[in-house]
Write a structure and sequence with these properties.
InterPro entries: DUF885 (IPR010281). By secondary structure, the protein is mainly α. The protein has helices at about 15-30, 30-35, 50-70, 80-100, 115-125, 130-140, 145-160, 165-180, 185-190, 200-225, 235-245, 255-280, 285-295, 300-320, 375-385, 390-395, 415-430, 435-460, 480-490, 495-505, 515-530, 540-545, 555-560; strands spanning about 295-300, 335, 345-350, 360-365, 370. It folds into two domains: about 15-235, no CATH class; about 245-515, no CATH class. The strands form two sheets. It has a three-stranded mixed sheet. A two-stranded antiparallel sheet has the order 1-5. The model has no long low-confidence stretch (mean pLDDT about 95).
Length: about 575
């Protein structure tokens, strides 16, 4: 069902009702969003990715901002819940409109968050239990060519306006598409449908595959030559706009850069001590390489999926009632294996708003069949429990007390990634990472997030490496130096590190949201604990914090500090 204009209400509009109306509008304009939220059952359309479609979304955002202006006036005495909803909605709308006005939507080509990936991943979010479900999937597959034509028109308009993606991003996406085509991804997915619909689904998959192949040829043969010479780094102005999208704040980037270096130095000391506990006298990098080859590992893809599931189930059982209080719907989370051609980093997908689709963690195998566990444990505390799943599933559980916008579309990466990084630290504080190898894995993950702050800001702003450092002192950051620095201080596989550098260059400002978000969460907890004194209840604080919904960094610490 399409919703034209604001949804009728029996009462005067409030910030929360305006925010919820906006979710409905966006779900109409972007049916992939409707599928992700579970609020458009049976939808087979795909978004209009053309310049007209992009402008339609911007117009909807301007209209919602005008409606908000009418109720959120200077001096308005709004209840606390309405005040939070209004601040988030205003900040998010102004951030996305600033990006639109700067033309960022005309160069969306990257290895994680561009339309290319969503035209595949949406099918993984769709119900697939009944013949009717599969009929919807088939119809949506037949709509892929129109969506791709719109996307190509937008990229062409970007070239005309000299708003271009960098060649490195285009080449990476072409490689991703090559992987999908080689595995015949749409046909393989469609093969999971009922036998009686096999021919129909395979024909629909062939339509999608043909459109994907044409997009591949366009990107490699037309778009890539047109964007030759576009720099990887976006510069301060674009970086500031993009960083606000991911953090909800106009950041002091020099302060953030200095914080990244301070965390790097602190973690380097901790990693040396942790490595010495595993293999005395060896460097952290040597110990991590040893653990890759000789440490505990899970053999087999199916086996590692089951192992990750048991890890999350165990954490859920042991934390519930002691450090969190979980509602029944929140207690379900599924470990999944990411399809071939995904980016290298593990990720989480949220439950639908009715919990009919549970929260899921996804492990890209990168063709591996043996999985060392020293660096997987804290990662799954981050992606699953008590990280992303507990926060984002709890948001869904309390959505009726907030707004759909606050628990979905209005999500701010610094709040969600910050909680997930806080969750890793919490598990360390609680003793779950006392095993020296697993604690080294946790510190390696923390180090990766600190390095992200350094090199993401450093590459895009062209900052210099401090003269006090031993690594290329005084030199200006480049992607090549960033990759060398990362490799010297990370236990991750080379393919993972290569993918990460491409990610940081293609999604400026996202990579810093983890550490800066964690800093805000820790500051908020410290302030609440100081205010509460001996009566501070960490479990109660966790549940109040997890039930706040989304906030930007400009508000997060203050709001957390006020919680009981």
């Amino acid at each position: 069902m399409r919703h034209d204009g604001p949804v009728p209400h029996d009462h005067p509009p409030t910030p929360r009702s305006i925010a919820d109306d906006h979710v409905e509008t966006l779900a109409d304009l972007n049916p992939i969003l409707g599928t992700a939220l579970g609020i458009r059952p049976g939808a087979d359309a795909l978004p209009d990715l053309s310049p007209d479609g992009i402008e339609a979304q911007a117009q909807a955002e301007r209209a919602t901002l005008a409606r908000l202006d009418a109720v959120d006036t200077p001096g308005a005495d709004l209840p606390e819940a309405e005040r939070r909803a209004a601040r988030l909605l205003r900040e998010r709308l102004s951030a996305t409109l600033a990006l639109h006005d700067a033309g960022e939507n005309f160069r969306q080509v990257n290895n994680l968050f561009s339309p290319v990936q969503s035209l595949r991943s949406v099918f993984l979010l769709m119900p697939a239990s009944t013949p009717d479900d599969w009929a919807v999937i088939g119809r949506r597959m037949r709509n892929v060519p129109d969506a791709i034509r719109g996307y190509r028109a937008t990229l062409d308009e970007g070239v005309a306006r000299v708003l271009c993606a960098a060649p490195r991003q285009v080449e990476t996406v072409v490689e991703q598409i090559d992987t999908w085509l080689a595995s015949d991804w749409y046909a393989t997915f469609a093969a999971g449908g009922p036998d009686g619909q096999h021919d129909e689904l395979q024909a629909a998959a062939a339509v999608s595959t043909g459109a994907l192949a044409e997009l591949r040829e366009y990107l490699a043969g037309t778009y890539l030559p047109a964007v030759a010479g576009t720099p990887d780094a976006v510069g301060r102005e674009r970086y500031t706009l993009n960083a606000r999208r991911w953090t909800g704040s106009d950041l002091d980037l020099e302060d953030a850069y200095a914080y990244g270096w301070a965390e790097y130095r602190r973690l380097a000391e901790e990693m040396r001590a942790a490595a010495d506990a595993v293999r005395p006298g060896h460097t952290p990098l040597a110990v991590m390489r040893h653990l890759d080859e000789h440490g505990a590992a899970v053999e087999g893809v199916d086996e590692v999926r089951a192992w990750l599931q048991s890890l999350m189930d165990e954490a859920m059982r042991e934390l519930d009632g002691t450090h969190v209080d979980l509602a029944e719907p929140v207690k379900t989370v599924e470990a999944m294996i990411a399809p071939p051609g995904s980016a290298a980093a593990p990720y989480y997908t949220r439950p639908s708003l009715d919990f009919s689709r549970p929260g899921r963690t996804w492990l890209p195998t990168l063709d591996a069949t043996r999985f060392p566990v020293w660096n997987l444990v804290s990662t799954w505390y981050h992606e699953g429990v008590p990280g992303h799943h507990l926060q984002l599933a709890q948001w869904v559980h309390v959505a009726d007390q907030l707004s759909r916008y606050q628990v979905s579309v209005g999500s701010v990466s610094a709040t969600t990634e910050g909680w997930a990084l806080y969750a890793e630290r919490l598990m360390d504080e609680l003793g779950y990472l006392s095993d020296p190898a697993r604690r080294l894995g946790y510190l390696d993950a923390q180090m990766m997030r600190a390095i992200r702050v350094i090199i993401d800001i450093g590459m895009h702003l062209g900052l210099r490496i401090p003269h006090t450092e031993h690594f290329h002192p005084g030199e200006t950051w480049t992607p090549e130096l960033a990759r060398e620095f990362f490799g010297a201080h990370s236990g991750r596989e080379p393919t993972f590190l290569d993918s990460e550098i491409v990610r940081y260059l293609g999604v400026p400002g996202q990579a810093i949201s983890y550490k800066l978000g964690e800093r805000a969460w820790l500051a908020g907890r410290d302030a609440a604990r100081a205010a509460g004194g001996a009566g501070f209840d960490l479990k109660a604080w966790h549940m109040a914090a997890l039930s706040l919904g989304s906030l930007g960094l400009d508000d997060l610490t203050d709001e957390l500090a006020r919680l009981p």
